[in-house]
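Q: Predict the bound structure with ribavirin monophosphate.
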Amino acid sequence: MAHYYKEPSRTFSEFLLLPNLTTKDCIPANVDLKTPIVKFQKDEKPAIELNVPFASAVMQAVSDQHMAIALAQCGGISFIYGSQTVADQVEMVRKVKEYKAGFVVSRSNLTPNHTLRDVLALNERNGHSTVAVTDDGTPKGKLLGIVTSRDYRTSRDSLDKPVSEFMTPYSSLIYGTLGTTLSEANDLIWEHKLNCVPIVDGDQNLVYLVFRKDYDRHKENPLELLDNNKSYIVGAGINTKDYKERVPALVEAGVDILVIDSSDGFSEWQRETVQYVKANFNVKIGAGNVADKEGFMYLVESGADFVKVGIGGGSICITREQKGIGRGQASALIEIAEARDAYFEETGTYVPICSDGGIVHDYHITMALAMGANFVMMGRYFARFDESPTKKLKIGNNYVKEYWAEGSNRARNWERYDLGGKQGLLFEEGVDSYVPYAGGLRENLDKTTSKIKSTMCNCGAKTIRGLQSEARITLVSSTSLVEGGAHDVILKDGSMSAE
Ligand code: RVP
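A: Predicted complex:
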């Protein structure tokens, strides 16, 4: 007879945290979100810790080299998607590892035909006062000049004045060429009293900008996640089919950590893959996804450095309705966290768990951490930002970004070209969608971390470990769920709130 669980499976929205006593030193500035992501022994320091508990999902629409660099600068990690050729994935990993901190791709760019009005609007939007002027207005176009706030006076200059009339033209610029080191670029900055030095290639195309303030770069990115060589830490997704080809190439490119990407990780293929990696390489590897303690223990005993939890909860995921497998994310997490703690108690080995998918509100992250997750993996959350690899489109009056599932035909297309002749999937496990565009990663992440820290203070916790041991969590009834949002008032946008 089938086994029946006594409790229904539940998700984050069905729970709330209760405040504990907040002591006077328990303020957001004193909260530390550092968290382990690979297994370690009692009294040892984990080989890799995140400074914020966020990983970006192993997805085409989320994690490429740009996301990886931006997230590592904020203290989190990206897992570069594996649903591409080995060569393309290796190239992305290499770009992250070779990224030269201090050399930034210009974010504010215009053409000479733009106007002072455009410059001011761009400054307002991006918060930068240096604008690169290129022939096509892109960050890699031919560099024609630079505009800084010293080049115009808003009190005197017409807003219609073309950029070409007040920019510092290329002929008068001090610039570096490809191969210029950071310390050489800084010497130029100091010698010539500049704010910024552009780096160009042999054809005068802009490659990077080096800013004076980046001299103290670490002060700007105090949480950045670096390896021993001061390169950003990056992960990569792999599968259980081509790993003998993919893993050696990723390791050669310098990847720090791998994860086997699958909606159901409780399989002998995953065990074989973990064991192959452990036997042949000195690289960390996570496995998953699982939704119960049996799956978790199987992967732990296979040698996984961390385990990913979650089946069917992803925003674009239709695994549950297509295949009828899965479990409410909170129930899966609670059970696995308990198994993780028991295993640690018994053996002295701590295997971190990652809650993957289904984060809808920021507080769900806090809830996942309180329920025992060491870090969360998110797709939808990151897909909304400038740094995600997908197109930004305007639909009606709103900007959106594309976001598609790894189990959709769209994501799987690469296999047809790469592995030769396969037809489309027999059925899809995910959808192709849009998410509302939300701007840059950093400002959003800052907002999210402030909320998490603030809730942690309500719970009297200054660390994630502390939150996990002290949190008091209650189930909420469906009626009290209604009470959780605005209710019984007429909202000023004209809509009626819940009654
Ligand atoms: P979300 O953050 O809710 O958008 O979920 C992202 C997660 O969804 C991914 O990390 C992955 O586990 C899962 N996913 C990705 N594609 C699919 C699918 O095709 N079903 N599911």
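A: The longest helix spans residues 329-347.
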